[in-house]
Structure formats: structure tokens, C-alpha cells
Specification:
Layout lengths: L8 E3 L18 H14 L3 E4 L1 E2 L6 E2 L2 H5 L2 H7 L3 E4 L9 H11 L3 E5 L3 E2 L17 H6 L5 E2 L3 H15 L2 E6 L2 H12 L7 E7 L9 H15 L3 E7 L4 H10 L3 E4 L6 E3 L2 E2 L3 H14 L7 H8 L10
Parallel strand pairs: 1-2, 1-12, 2-5, 5-6, 6-9, 9-10, 10-11, 11-12
Antiparallel strand pairs: 3-4, 7-8, 13-14
Helix pairs in contact: 1-3, 1-10, 4-6, 7-8, 9-10
């Protein structure tokens, strides 16, 4: 891993796991997503990891029109790096999952480095009343679905989004084996460093939210990539802030946002994405780790620049 420097804060405002019934503060309409993203950027997030939602019922959407309903406003209001998900939801086809990125031609796009069981069905037990008919079967059905990216899918994303559009990737690694898959594609020269590796912990089906796992992931990434990568990490749910802090202590970067946790503290819902950004920023600054600006993040990651996107 490169020597510790300024910390990149990524914020993921909405995602595709949580549903409107789980928190009144989850942004789902274009205006809400735009306002949440802009607020997070103003609070210190250099990168905004974005999913789209159907504005009618808040369900996850891969549609380019739903992305384009908020992307221009975010770009006009902030200098933050826009990161478009190619993971979408386990209910979407690969063609659907690529629709937003192909239309937006972003500086960054997420890329899941392998298939995994992605079980968030346990969240259903915390919901007292469902607002929309799609929510309960979507959440409870997560135990029967696989988030699917085989090596053929991964290669296609690297070629069609990376090589064709000049977009770089946030490589989402949910287990140690995903690092070796990434190394395979690096060896084949389908991708070039620096690699932004996002360690994802605490998803049922992926690597657990144990600090020893985080240390191990960094150790293996060091052995595979040397100084050719930039590390970031987060944990889903209650371990969000603790894992971000651990990543910073190891010299890495951090990700927060209501995609990953709806809470700001034990039993207390976060009222905004900006609240989570401000909390982790305070922790980082107390640790003596200054926060990177969007342009500093661009330089660290070798991005093409905000003037080269499609929105």
C-alpha cells in the first residue's frame, strides 16, 4: 500500500439494500439523492458512490434516465468525483447494471470482483410496517439470491466501461479471493494501476467484520500489488465507523453513507449522509489524518477529470 497521506472519504448515499420503510432519511427521489450527495460533498466527501432509485416507489433502478435526473445537478453543485455503481442489485441483469455507467461515462465506477451470497434478509425483522409492496419480498428474498459477477462479466465491464469510456474502478472486494481475481486481470493488462481497492466487510456471505480480517486483507493486497494500489474499507451496519477508523489507522481510506449503515450511533438513525461524513471526518482529523479534496483524490487515483464525463 502507498505511504499514508491524505484520506479519501467516499460517501454512498442510497445504495440498493435499504428500503424506504427502514428509514425516513434514506434518499430515494432525484431531489433527495442530489441533496444528500451535495451535502455529503460539502461535509468533506471527495467521492460520491451513486445508485439510482425509481422515484415512484423508491425501488432500486438501473435506468439511465433515473441517474440523469440527479447527476447534472450534483456536478453543477460540487467538484466531487462521481462513482456510478455497476453492481446495481442482484435482481438486475448485467446489461441493465451497465446502463447508468455507459450513459454517464463517469470518472469512477464500482466493480464487484466476484460472485457472492449477498444476504440482507435479516433487516426485514426490524421493519414494523412496509410502505410499498415490493419491499418485503425484496428484502426477505435476499437469502435466496446471489450477487453475480463471474470472470466473463468482470472482463466485459473492464472492456466496455473501463477501456471504452476511460473510466477507472472502485474494485469492491468482499473476500480475500477477490484480491487474487483482481491480480489476475492486472496481470492480463486489462486494468492499470493505481487500483482503488474497496474492502467490504460484514455482508452475510462475504468476509466478516473482524479487524483481523481487515489487517489480513491489507497484508495480502500488499503482497499482490505493492505500491500500485490505494486501499479503502468499510463495514456494513453497526461496525461502520469502527472499521473506517481501523482503515485509517492502517494508512487507508474510508467509506460511509446510508447505503452501508442507516445509523449514526447505537440505535440512532442518521438524519443525513452528511452527518456520517462529518463524524468520520472528525475522527480522521483527531487521528492526524487530513482529508483529501476531490482534486487530490483525482490525482491519487489517476482519474480522467470531471470534464470528460457524459453529464
Amino acid at each position: 500500500m502507498r505511504k499514508p497521506g491524505k484520506v479519501i472519504i467516499t460517501c454512498a448515499p442510497t445504495g440498493s439494500i435499504h428500503t424506504p420503510s427502514m428509514s425516513p432519511h434514506l434518499p430515494v427521489t432525484p431531489d433527495e439523492i442530489a441533496e444528500a450527495a451535495i451535502g455529503a460533498a460539502e461535509a468533506g466527501a471527495a467521492i460520491l458512490h451513486l445508485h439510482a432509485r425509481d422515484p415512484i416507489d423508491g425501488s432500486p433502478s438501473p435506468a439511465a434516465e433515473h441517474f440523469m435526473a440527479f447527476l447534472p445537478r450534483i456536478k453543477q453543485s460540487t467538484g466531487a468525483v462521481i462513482n456510478i455503481s455497476t453492481g446495481g442489485s442482484a435482481t438486475m441483469s448485467l446489461d441493465a447494471r451497465l446502463e447508468g455507467a455507459k450513459a454517464a461515462r463517469p470518472e469512477l465506477a464500482s466493480l464487484n470482483m466476484g460472485p457472492l451470497i449477498f444476504d440482507f434478509s435479516g433487516a426485514a425483522a426490524r421493519v414494523q410496517q412496509w410502505q410499498h409492496p415490493w419491499e418485503r419480498p425484496y428484502v426477505e428474498g435476499a437469502r435466496d439470491r446471489i450477487m453475480y459477477n463471474d470472470n466473463g462479466y468482470i472482463e466485459r465491464i473492464m472492456r466496455e466501461v473501463g477501456q471504452d469510456l476511460g473510466t477507472r474502478f472502485e474494485f469492491e472486494c468482499y473476500d480475500i479471493g477477490h484480491l487474487y481475481t483482481l491480480a489476475h486481470f492486472a496481470d492480463r493488462k486489462l486494468i492499470e494501476p493505481p487500483f482503488l481497492i474497496q474492502g467490504v466487510f460484514g455482508i452475510l456471505g462475504g468476509i466478516g467484520a473482524d479487524p483481523r480480517n481487515l489487517s489480513h486483507m491489507v497484508t495480502i493486497a500488499d503482497s499482490l500489488f505493492g505500491e500500485d494500489y490505494v486501499f479503502s474499507a468499510f463495514a456494513a451496519g453497526k461496525n461502520q465507523m469502527a472499521f473506517c477508523t481501523q482503515s485509517a489507522l492502517l494508512g487507508g481510506n474510508v467509506r460511509v453513507g446510508l447505503e452501508d449503515s442507516l445509523y449514526i450511533g447505537a440505535g440512532e438513525l442518521a438524519r443525513s449522509n452528511a452527518d456520517q461524513v462529518r463524524k468520520i471526518r472528525t475522527i480522521l482529523e483527531e487521528l492526524g489524518r487530513p482529508v483529501a479534496t476531490p482534486d487530490e483524490a483525482r490525482a491519487m487515483l489517476g482519474l480522467k477529470g470531471g470534464d470528460q464525463v457524459g453529464f
